[in-house]
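[agent] plan:
  1. take the single chain provided in the ticket
  2. run structure prediction with default settings
  3. attach structure tokens to the ticket
  4. add a short note for the reviewer (M.T.)
[agent] executing step 1
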Amino acid sequence: MTVAIMGGTTLILACVGLPFLINARNGQRLLATGIPAQAMVESMADTGVTVNGQPMVSFVLGVRAQDGQAYRVTHRQTLPRIPMGVVAPGVTVPIKVDPQRRDRVRIDWGSWRPVPNGA
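[agent] step 2 finished; step 3 output follows
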């Protein structure tokens, strides 16, 4: 009986946690191999999910690719604490774009720098 409970608990935890692990791994790979671009935050909304103390946010981004082409993409990603009060609609953020699927993007928080007022 104990083995069945432990097995069931492990299965449930794997089913819940595995998508988060896969998403994190894919995000790290995209940051390492993606094509740099810029995106303007058009809108953002809280998803009600928190990952490692950071809120998961649904962003609508206006992407400007290196080739000059502009397009819109909806993207979900955690919002770190540092830029939390500064990132808002109208702000430009650095992103990495999947060269195979332009709708897959990742905000590059490590490269993000706030623009001073008046700049």
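[agent] step 4 note for reviewer: The beta strands are 35-51, 54-64, 70-78, 92-97, 105-107.
[agent] ticket updated
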